[in-house]
UniProtKB/TrEMBL annotation:
Keyword terms of this UniProt record: Amino-acid transport, Signal, Transport
GO biological process: amino acid transport
Similarity remark: Belongs to the leucine-binding protein family.
Pfam families: Peripla_BP_6 (PF13458)
Keyword RNA-binding listed: no
Protein name from the UniProt record: ABC transporter substrate-binding protein
InterPro entries linked: Leu-bd, Leu_Ile_Val-bd, Peripla_BP_I
Length: 415
């Protein structure tokens, strides 16, 4: 086992060397038309370059980390696209301060073990002063243990697991809502707005999915909703007949599944084919057009899910931003584009404050960490950010969506 870990680490070091020599890698696209393969990487200098005044620019690297390949690449690639766009808009400002700020993309494959390997690589690069990511809870938890040792700050756009910040690591921050917020509000919505009196809860045995399911179960029990069953399934399987048969025998009004769209789509399709007529509900892991493709448009009708990201097109300002982003990058806005954008802007704000506090000199990782941790009333494009002592955003909200005729439809904020 030790030999395997060593080999994996060496292979990852080689991958980092390639990324540093080139454009940062990790351009794999995701589902639902949100592929980021057409993105242009942030300019890379490979070292100090001359400024317009003839001086040398000092290099600073902000890493963007998430699943850039595999079945969850939609999440990582869209967050990366938003982060890259934010950096591009701010690079000239930092050049005026004497710094060439670059972005280095890394693929953790939504795998906790790979998250550790990526974190160790980033720590070994002294120019890396911050991390936008990780995108999934499991990888964020394992990577954060590495970052904590080196005081390397992270700002996640989308890792919702409650224990991520409850573990007390100072380096951990996120701009999105926690699972205990998302889960409890989902359960309250199901009871009060959908009239659900009984529910069968299923999860994928992973940090995000099970954590979310547990919070829903807790709130349902508090509110007197009958829990008809509670089961875990193995993510990535193709046949969930065993658990579906148990659900049908229990005849609940709702199936709540904590997990990602790839498994949710199969579960929905197979349950509908077996005659289940009740409500399906889940969290932001359902937010992908691939769920509709997997389940089938008819089967996905009225599937309801909560999300930490609101409707970007609800305002004229939001519509304008979408248009500018898509025309500038050639990419469609995806699930975490907006929060990748705001997470990078939070990071860059902290970096700028750390530079100022260090008399215009390149700050240390700890100085950047302290500045990011002190973020208060920072108005991002889509979310206002104030970090509490744990690193949670005091202004984070939860929203409700549903699928209708194959399209995602915004319902409103979950109250």
């Amino acid at each position: 086992m030790k030999k395997q870990k060593t080999m994996a680490f060496l292979a990852t070091v080689v991958a980092l060397g390639t990324a540093l020599a080139g454009c940062g890698g990790g351009n794999a696209g995701g589902g639902g038309g949100n592929a980021s393969g057409g993105e242009q990487p942030a300019p890379q200098s490979g070292g100090n370059t001359g400024s317009s005044s003839g001086g040398a620019l000092q290099k600073i690297v902000i890493a963007a980390v998430g699943p850039m390949s595999g079945q969850y690449s939609d999440y990582g690639s869209t967050a990366k696209a938003g982060a890259e766009y934010a950096l591009k808009q701010n690079q000239e400002k930092f050049k005026a301060l004497g710094f060439d700020v670059q972005m280095l993309t890394q693929d953790d494959q939504a795998d906790p073990k790979q998250g550790v390997a990526v974190a160790q690589m980033l720590i070994s690069n002294p120019d890396v002063l911050g991390v936008v990511g990780h995108v999934t809870t499991g990888a964020s938890i394992t990577a954060s243990a590495q970052y904590e040792q080196e005081k390397l700050v992270m700002v996640s756009p989308s890792s919702t697991g409650s224990n991520l910040t409850d573990e007390g690591k100072k380096v951990v921050h996120r701009i999105c809502a926690r699972d205990d917020q998302q889960g409890s509000k989902a359960a309250i919505y199901a009871k009060n707005q959908l009239g659900v009196k009984s529910a069968y809860i299923v999860h994928d045995k992973q940090a995000y999915g099970q954590g979310l399911a547990d919070e829903v179960k807790k709130q349902f029990e508090k509110d007197g909703v009958t829990i008809a069953g509670y089961e875990g399934i193995t993510a990535g399987e193709k046949d969930y007949s065993a658990v579906i048969n148990q659900i049908l025998a229990a005849n609940p009004e709702m199936i709540y599944f904590g997990g990602y769209y790839s498994d949710a789509g199969i579960l929905i399709k197979q349950a509908r084919e077996k005659g289940y007529k009740g409500v399906f509900m889940g969290g932001d892991g359902y937010d992908s057009a691939d769920l509709v493709k997997i389940a089938g448009a008819d089967n996905a009708n009225n599937v309801i899910f909560t999300s930490t990201v609101g409707d970007l097109s609800a305002t004229e300002e939001g519509k304008k931003w979408i248009s500018e982003f898509e025309s500038s990058t050639g990419n469609k806005v995806g699930i975490f584009t907006s929060f990748g954008y705001d997470s990078m802007n939070v990071m860059l704000h902290g970096l700028e404050e750390a530079i100022k506090a260090n008399n215009g000199q390149k700050p240390t990782r700890e100085q950047v960490l302290d500045a990011v941790h002190k973020t208060k009333d920072f108005q991002g494009q889509f979310v206002k950010v104030t970090f509490n002592e744990k690193g949670d955003n005091e202004f984070a909200s939860v929203y409700v969506y549903k699928y209708e005729n194959g399209q995602k439809v915004f319902v409103g904020e979950a109250k």
